[in-house]
Every structure is written in structure tokens, then in C-alpha cells.
């Protein structure tokens, strides 16, 4: 009986490993413009043994519910006003647009206050890496890096060469700072962590990802103006990105892995690679 149990256990492990391998390899073979396959791969990778065990944190404190509601309404109002051109034109340093609007500082201020007052930690510590989180970072980024290199080196390369050095640098800045850094700091570093004080792990991931998806008002406007398969898949990809980055953050306990994943998905590596090739 023991031998049969061991055999079944080993058979199960082999099956899981085979499925995981297929999921991991698919993004290297098939290019997906929405990065759906890499995101599914990341979600699978984040569930593997070299990552940390999920910790339960929810306390159902009403104060956390109020903070969550007020914070979500605040960012929704800011995004709505920004998309409709009501806010300022942004923060500039030497003619370089650092932030789309001064109101975007909210995405930095709220998480920093949360880290200092509630978690009582230095905000910089959420970007630290240990050996396990470094391994996780490499694992989640490799399929995207290989895919992007292959994509750039084929005929599609020429659409990126049209960008000059300044435009390429700005595209990289947009991917790493304006998109990845601000969004991961707020949605994963603050909102997801806050929701874990209220809900279970699964609900926290689902709700934070849903808020992250709905926050993209520009796509929602397109959806209501004239529904298209492109917009629907784009919104699904954003939802999956929210799930993937939350899973990675929860396992690594660092914002750096999800930040890099987010930046690479948004083309940060792609534009950086092209910039090196064209210098």
C-alpha cells in the first residue's frame, strides 16, 4: 500500500511538472500581443515550492474597509478627471514629463503613509530581494525577455527603430516608472496588502485585480463606445496582470519582482533592447 501511495504521489508530481513545463514554454513559442500566455505562466510559477507560503492576515477591521473605499474612490476620480483633460498637464523637469499630473503623487503618498503608519516599516524595504525572490524574478521574466528578443529580431523590429533616442528613453521611463512603479506601489504594495486585512487571499487578489482593471477608464470608455474583441482581451490581460503581480508580491514579499514583470509586459525591456541596438 505504501509503495502504491508513493507511486501515485510521484505520478502526480510528474503530471504537475509536465503541465507547468508546457505553461512555461508556450510563451516562448507563440507570440501573444496581450501577453496572456506569459501572465498565465507567471501565475503558475508563483505557486511553485521555491516561493514562500501564503500567510493569512485578514482581521475584518471596519477601519480598513473605510480606508479601502476612500482610497479606491480617490484614484477613480483622479483617473476620470485626467482622462477627460480636467487636471494639469503634468510635472516637468527640463522639459521631461516626470508625471502625467501632480495628482499622481497620491499613488506614492498613500502607500508611503501606509508603510510608515500601519505596517511600521521603511518603504524602501518593500523593494529588497533575497535569494528566493531573486530566483522568482528570473523565472517570471525569462519567458518575456526571450519572447521580446525574438519579436524584435524579426520583421517587426523596424516599427521600433522609428523612435529616436529621446523617444525610446521616454518609453522606457513610462514603462518602468509611470506605469510599473506607481501602479505596483499603489495596487499591490498598498491596496492588495490592505484588502488582505479584510478578506481572504483569493478575494484580496480578485478584488485588487478588478479595481486595477476598472481603473483603466480609457479602455472602459472604448468598450462602451463600441465593443470590440481587442478591447475585451486587453481588459482580460490587465486583470490577469493584476492577479500575476499580486501572486508574485505575496510570495516574494518584495515589490521589485512584480514591478519588473509589469514593466517588461508594458514593453520596458523591448524598448531598452532596441535602444541598445540602435545606439
Based on the model shown, name its key terms:
279 residues, globular
Task: Produce the secondary structure layout.
Blueprint: H1 2-29, H2 36-45, H3 62-83, E1 91-93, E2 96-99, H4 106-118, H5 131-153, H6 158-161, H7 165-195, H8 201-214, H9 217-225, H10 229-252, H11 256-265, H12 268-278
Antiparallel strand pairs: 1-2
Helix pairs in contact: 1-2, 1-5, 2-5, 2-10, 4-7, 5-11, 5-12, 7-8, 7-10, 7-11, 7-12, 8-10, 9-10, 10-11
What is the structural class?
mainly alpha
Strand order of the largest sheet: 1-2
Given as residue ranges, the uncertain stretches (5+ residues, pLDDT < 50) are none
**Share in helix:** over 70%
Name the beta content range: under 5%
Shape: globular
Largest sheet: 2 strands, antiparallel
- SSE string, helix = H, strand = E? HHHEEHHHHHHHHH
Describe this structure as you would to a colleague.
By secondary structure, the chain is mainly α. Helices cover 71% and strands 3% of the residues. It contains 12 helices and 2 strands. Strands 1-2 form a two-stranded antiparallel ribbon. Helix 7 (165-195) packs across helix 8 (201-214). The radius of gyration is 20 Å and the shape is globular.
